[in-house]
């Protein structure tokens, strides 16, 4: 649909399907890449190195971390903004404010599109670059796995140390409670012995003291 009305253009932009929105997230190529691939612009992909051309982060160059097709923006490493609570989040940047300096060639579909209409020498160079990038990606994945394993081991060690400390504290508390309970038990054992003696004495006195009836009868006699 082609129209000059801004309201219809906005409606088309926001209600467009994802396969169209994906093509709109495109950026210009650097001069060296433009001459090499004979293309002015390409859709931005996760892993492309990019240079910011406008805004407060102008001149910043780093890899693309995320491509949000639905909202139409990208996220770049090192570009963050702080929230009201102090937490930092990635700042969204429009792809039109960016220039691609290095392409991510790990995807074979992207390579096939780039190689169309190019000479065999250019195709071989693209394949070599793709192999190097794939090796680098594998090494990075191995390093990330190793770091994750180390972090898990540290967490396990910390949890075991915490458990040992808690067990020691519990054992100390139990020993203290036992020491406090022992004298209390001894006191409880001693107190009923005194009561028994008092009872026996009272029984003896009861047997000796005459009842009122007996005393009255003796007086009448």
- Contiguous low-pLDDT stretches (5 residues minimum) are 198-205
Number of helices: 6
Task: Give the termini separation.
Answer: 140 Å
> What is the number of strand segments?
8
Shape: elongated
Mean pLDDT across all amino acids? 84
CATH architecture of the largest domain: Roll
Alpha-beta content class: alpha+beta
Please, how many domains?
Answer: 2
Radius of gyration: 44 Å
Record the strand order, biggest sheet: 2-1-8-3-4-5
Q: Largest sheet, described in full?
A: 6 strands, mixed
Q: So what's the oligomer here?
A: single chain
- Helix content class: 55-70%
Q: Report the β-strand fraction as a percent range.
A: 15-25%
Question: Would you kindly provide a written description of the structure presented here, covering whatever features stand out?
Answer:
With about 220 residues, the chain is an alpha+beta fold. Strand 4 (about 60-70) and strand 5 (about 75) form a beta hairpin. Helices cover about 60% and strands about 15% of the residues. It has 2 domains: about 1-105, Roll (SH3 type barrels); about 105-160, no CATH class. It has helices at about 5-15, 20-25, 30-35, 110-115, 120-210, 210-220, and strands at about 25-30, 40-45, 50, 60-70, 75, 80, 90, 100. The strands form 2 sheets. It has a 6-stranded mixed β-sheet with strand order 2-1-8-3-4-5. It is built from 6 helices and 8 strands. The chain is elongated.
